[in-house]
Write a sequence for this structure.
C-alpha cells in the first residue's frame, strides 16, 4: 500500500487513500479518515478543505515546480528549452518513494469521473500558468501557448508511464525520453 507519508498531512493522505481503495471513495467519510489516522476531524480540516483535497492538495507547489525553472532560466533561453527545464524539475516532485502512492491515487481518480474532471482541470490550470510564465519572459504567441501545451502533453504522457505497472525508471528519465521523441517527430534526424 501507499508508503509516502511525511508528517500528519502525509499520514492523512496515505490513510485516506487506503480507505478509498478498500471501502470506496464515496463510502469513506472525513470522520473515518481522521479516526484511522489517529487525529481529530479538526486536525483533518487544518490540512484539507474536504476529502477530495486529500488527492489534489499542493497545487501551488505543483505549479511552482513548472513555473520556477521557466522564470529562473537565463535570458534568451529558447521556449523548448524552458519546457525541458520545467519537466526536469518535475523529477524532484515525483521521487521513487512517491510512486506507489501516485499509482494508488490514480486508481481512485480513474474510478470516479468527477475526480477525473478535477484532475483535467488541474492540468488545464497548470497549462495557463506555464503559458503566462512563458509570455512574461517575452515568448510570443502562438509559441507560448504551443510550448505550454507541449509541456502538459509531455508531462501527462510521462506521468502515465511513470505510474504504469512494472515501470521503475525515474520520472525525469521518462520525461527526457518523451521530449526526445517529440524532437525526433518535429526534427527528424536530430
Amino acid at each position: 500500500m501507499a508508503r509516502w507519508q511525511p508528517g500528519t498531512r502525509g499520514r492523512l493522505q496515505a490513510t485516506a487513500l487506503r480507505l478509498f481503495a478498500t471501502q470506496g471513495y464515496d463510502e469513506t467519510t472525513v470522520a473515518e479518515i481522521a479516526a484511522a489516522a489517529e487525529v481529530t476531524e479538526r486536525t483533518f480540516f487544518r490540512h484539507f478543505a474536504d476529502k477530495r483535497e486529500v488527492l489534489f492538495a499542493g497545487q501551488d507547489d505543483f505549479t511552482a515546480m513548472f513555473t520556477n525553472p521557466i522564470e529562473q532560466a537565463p535570458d534568451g533561453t529558447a521556449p523548448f528549452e524552458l519546457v525541458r527545464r520545467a519537466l526536469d524539475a518535475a523529477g524532484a516532485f515525483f521521487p521513487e518513494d512517491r510512486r506507489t502512492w501516485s499509482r494508488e491515487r490514480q486508481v481512485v481518480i480513474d474510478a470516479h469521473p468527477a475526480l477525473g474532471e478535477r484532475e483535467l482541470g488541474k492540468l488545464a490550470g497548470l497549462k495557463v500558468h506555464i503559458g503566462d510564465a512563458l509570455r512574461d519572459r517575452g515568448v510570443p504567441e502562438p509559441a507560448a501557448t504551443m510550448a505550454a501545451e507541449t509541456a502538459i502533453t509531455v508531462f501527462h504522457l510521462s506521468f502515465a508511464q511513470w505510474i504504469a505497472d512494472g515501470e521503475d525508471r525515474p520520472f525525469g528519465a521518462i520525461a527526457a525520453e518523451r521530449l526526445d521523441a517529440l524532437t525526433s517527430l518535429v526534427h527528424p534526424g536530430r
Summary: The domain at 58-186 is CATH 1.10.357.10 (Tetracycline Repressor; domain 2).
